[in-house]
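During the first year of the project, the team set up a workflow for recording each protein of interest as an amino acid sequence followed immediately by a discrete structure-token representation. This format lets reviewers and collaborators read both layers of information side by side without switching files. As required by the reporting guidelines, we include two representative entries from the current panel. The first entry is reproduced here exactly as it appears in our internal archive.
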Amino acid sequence: MTDIEDPGSTADAEPSAQAESSTQAESSTQAESGRSADVFSRLALEMHEAEGIEETVQAVVDFALQALNCDYAGVALRTSGGGLEIPAVTAPVVAEIYEFQTAGGDGPLVLCMAERATVLVPDTVLDARWLDWAKRVLELGVRSVLDVPLWTSSGPVGVLGLYSKRPDAFGADEIAVAYILARHAAVAMATARREQHLQVAVDARKLVGQAMGILMERYNLTGDQAFQVLRRYSQDTNTKLREVAQQLIDSRRLPSGQ
């Protein structure tokens, strides 16, 4: 006699297999999320421990190479005068791409900074928005570009640039990770800059205090009189007060004629 398979056994097996597959997929997603969270936690720690803006920016571009599907990465930061500086790149190629745009050439960096918008170039061969830029970038072997704005509530900080030798290298997942990275990076850089400015201010006060002490001892001046001497020289020569103080400390005298 031929055994007849119970129809219910097949019906029960299929949902069971589907449930197992769904559970495996969910576990895989959770594991991936856990790894991503761990990676970003390590990045946040590295940026927090960085000693200055240069170290902070370098940590960002190094992390970008690890976490995103790119061959090169770089950061361009807005200066106090409204221009751009390039504190960190992972290859000279990135510096050339940035410099082409900062020298007056149009490109995604300019748009990203001006409109605080993420700009994706899937393929430099096909993109027709910035022909001169695309030609130059293609000559450097770059096919895909993703520029992500760095900004805080205080305003724009700069741009994180990601570059790949392959076309269509940046999909929705890469863009999402880049956005999160940019938010972390912008806050860290703004904090590093603020601490740097505070340190400069503290150093300046120390220099001015030391210079005042020299004047007070040499010319029997009060503290207010010594400060007025430094300030008048600063105004007359259009020199920063900090620099005036440094000159006096180094030479032990104000320049002749003062």
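The second entry, processed by the same pipeline in the following quarter, appears below.
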Amino acid sequence: MRTEGTVTPDSPCEATATNAVDVLVMRQTIALVLPAEDELPPGLDVGTLTETLRGHMELIVPEVETKALALHKEDIPRYCALACVSEANGKLRARAGQGAYAALVFARKLARSLATLCDHYETLTSMPICLACDRMIHRRSESMPYDRVSNFGGAVTSHLHAACEPRTSYLTRAPRPG
């Protein structure tokens, strides 16, 4: 059972206790703000969610920046992560416009920026992410490598939760003759 800010050990996405950046909690907050509907679900306050998103961004921005700056100057992940950090800092300085709709639009901009920061954080910290369910694979979770050919040539090794393996038939299915 999940409690505020923690994940149970049997969860495939368990966060480490020493990790100050809890990507799982951040992604759960993002999911509240980025539903397909035009309005937030009842009972959620856009102001509170905006401040929560800001707090998450204030935690993760320096982590992503520090990890990106440790890479070689000509490393593409460094360049992309630092561009994202710059964009996020701009959003942290900005304020929502007048009215409820403008506040919701602004919260969604913060959520999209935070989602990208989470992606960069996961990449820069080499957190294995399940190719099928897009969740972190904890070191104690049963998982398996999944080798595939990259669009840019060469092989890429991704990972899958063992429980997600049956869901990956679409990844290995050969094209139908036409």
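For the second entry, the following points were noted during internal review. The two ends are 48 Å apart (CA to CA). DSSP finds five helices and two strands in the chain. Both points are flagged for discussion at the upcoming steering committee meeting.
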